[in-house]
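Shall we go through a protein fold together, starting from nothing but its sequence? Please make up or recall a protein chain and show it to me in full. Go ahead whenever you are ready, and we will take it from there.
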Amino acid sequence: MAGITSLDNASSLLISGTNVAKSLLNNKAERLGSSQSPDYTKKDPLIALTTSGGGYSSVSVQKYARLVDPVMRQQRFDAIGDLSLAEVQNNYGTQLSNLLGRFNDDKALSNRITDVFSKIDALVSSPTNSRTPSDLKDSFLQLTSMLNDVTNGIQTLRTQCEQDIASGVTKTNTLLQNLFDSNTQLNSIFGLGNDVSRVMDPHDSIIEQLASYLPLKVEDQKSGASYITSPFPLLLQKNEPISFQGGNVLTPQQFYNINGTGTLQGIKDADGNDVTYALTRGSLGGLIELRDTILPEAQSLIDNLTATLMTEFNAISNKGTAYTPDSVLTGERIIPPTGDTTPFTGQGTLRVALIDRTTHIITNHVDINMANINTIGDMRNAFATVPGLTTAYDTNNRLQLNSNNPNLGISMVSLTGVQTASETTTGKNLARVTQFAAKGWESKRKT
């Protein structure tokens, strides 16, 4: 149960991650709001005094001079990028949280886990209760189904990220082309000595949209034209300043590695250099982190959770609650010629049970204190205390258990939480000590 507790907490962390993203959103929104102060950008009228021949004077607005604080302008673009990254990760985080379920929902993953292990505890404490095995089996099947749904859902989210990256790159290239055209227009207007302020707001709008996709560093010219690095050069005159070969359906085995060993692609500049590492802001940066880090880590948590569930449930399934146990168990190891007098020392408590192969109900069971076993003969005598169970050596001198009833299967499990039923001198698990690794126990643990 200890392993489940930690992994259940990990499930909680996945859900609470959404709250972190929301906090980040608030922080970035405040930064964005501060950059919209009156001093960020304003147009001041340039007023001219005109004197007529009759001595009368008048004033008129000749043009508007656009005044921009370059520091606040860059902060604004940075804040837009941070906000966009947080927004896209918050959106995906919400979808991931929905997959896992809310804690007050009986169908949430954490509650499914709790339900399964409460039924396991009930089975250990009341092995002859006819309802408990069936209830456990139903709960475990429901949990397994949900784990499969979560795994499929995570891969669906990764595929969605891949497709959103491809779409974002296309939109970015379109904006970069628009910026190139806007720069051309500004240089032309400025070269003719005309006022460029009237076209600067649309120009800035293009840059702000770009900042929502990737990090920008902006250098403005006297004409108002803007040259950008990201922090890699963006060649605006190119048809595809950045490129991405992707957008396919992803599997858990696909991953990205900047050195080219991965199966997924990164984002490249116009010269074919991988610049994925530089995307620390904007929705593209957020999507890359989701695809390559956040969602794979979530899948890893689910994988670890599944492995722990398998270990825990296989231990209890030896009671026959999840499979049809065999009526005859034959060991792997050959008993020495000394036979019953072969020395043995052990520790822990072993439960040996006969299970109805149809109803999976325990009909008889005995708990064996391994500390009381001194020889293989003692072990055989202990097995024989289970009503109906007999022991013998086969022709290869391997120990064999027989329920003597084709409708009854044999199962064993260690009942000690800290100290497993094992051989003291070697520490070997009882599956090896009692020679029953081949059938009925060890093979079930591998399911």
User: Anything to note?
Assistant: DSSP finds nine helices and 14 strands in the chain. The radius of gyration is 35 Å. Residues 2-313 form one domain.
